[in-house]
From TrEMBL:
The keyword Membrane applies. It is found in: Cell membrane. It comes from Actinacidiphila yanglinensis. It is a multi-pass membrane protein. This is NitT/TauT family transport system permease protein. GO terms for biological process: transmembrane transport.
Length: 288
């Protein structure tokens, strides 16, 4: 009987030590909701900043602190946007711009990634092309518009080339940086296992350079949108750029701003898509 009494406290202690810690369901629920709120903090702050900007803009326009004829107002832009979408003319412009931008950006991503990996893997190629890449990136592509028009005309081909020229260089530069920043141990291991050069590109260099590539894609998207709009200003008979120019020539500031707001929303969605790809495929490189 005494032995049983003496063993019970020890057994209870061992049982407590060996069993997993008990969690309080209420505390776990509170922490889960708090983590969700913290995750929504950044989007909510972004929306708050946009709402404050629109409110200040509307107040300044309503009180004539700025001339509504030139600056319009959020409410007038909303009304003009509803009119444009109800008439349907803007869909044709968005479709043309989206098609040309999509083709040019796809070529930029594929070609820029391959070119960057090849140049970054070779010291000789890097030294030979560094000056050329820097010059092409620094010189505004608008200066070459007359040459591009002379060579390819004013059709879709010229506008796609402008998108490629605008978007491929940031991607090439970032991919080269990622390839040259590749850990030397990865190179030594792939060499020790006699990995073929082509397989080394897509099995070692490409995954390790993925954060740099996605950062380059984000820059490429922004510059590509600038390129297509500038091209449509100068040599477009349609598209978003021509649409904005037409409404401004008619002194319809609200209509032009409605198209610009649409383009801003598209740019925001594209950047959000790239950010999602970074979290999905390169989350190991993102620091909290």
């Amino acid at each position: 009987m005494n032995d049983t009494v003496m063993k019970n406290p020890a057994d209870r202690t061992a049982s407590r030590e060996g069993s997993p810690p008990q969690r309080n369901p209420e505390r776990t629920s509170v922490l889960t909701w708090w983590d969700r709120l913290r995750g929504l903090q950044s989007p909510l702050l972004n929306l708050a900043g946009i709402a404050i900007l629109l409110a200040v803009w509307q107040i300044c326009s309503a009180t004539h602190m700025v001339d509504p004829a030139f600056a319009s107002s959020p409410w007038k832009i909303l009304v003009a946007g509803r009119k444009l979408y109800s008439q349907g003319a803007i869909y044709t412009a968005l479709g043309q711009t989206g098609k040309e931008f999509g083709i040019g950006e796809l070529i930029s991503i594929v070609a820029g990634t391959i070119i960057g990996l090849v140049i970054g893997a070779s010291r000789v190629l890097y030294d030979m092309t560094r000056g050329i890449v820097d010059v092409l990136y620094s010189v505004p592509h608008v200066l070459f518009l007359p040459v591009i028009i002379f060579w390819f005309g004013i059709g879709s081909t010229s506008r796609i080339i402008i998108v490629i020229w605008s978007g491929i260089l940031p991607l090439v530069i970032n991919t080269i940086a990622g390839s040259r920043a590749l850990n030397a141990d990865y190179r030594r291991v792939s060499t020790a296992f006699c990995t073929p050069r082509f397989k080394r590109f897509y099995k070692v260099a490409l995954p390790a350079s993925l954060p740099f590539i996605l950062s380059g894609v984000r820059l490429s998207v922004g510059r590509g949108l600038i390129g297509i709009i500038v091209a449509e200003f100068f040599m477009g008979s349609g598209g978003v750029g021509f649409f904005v120019q037409f409404h401004m020539s008619q002194l319809d500031t609200s209509g032009a701003m409605a198209v610009i707001v649409t383009l801003c929303v598209v740019a925001l969605l594209l950047n959000s898509l790239v950010a999602w790809c970074e979290k999905r495929f390169a989350n190991w490189s993102i620091s909290d």
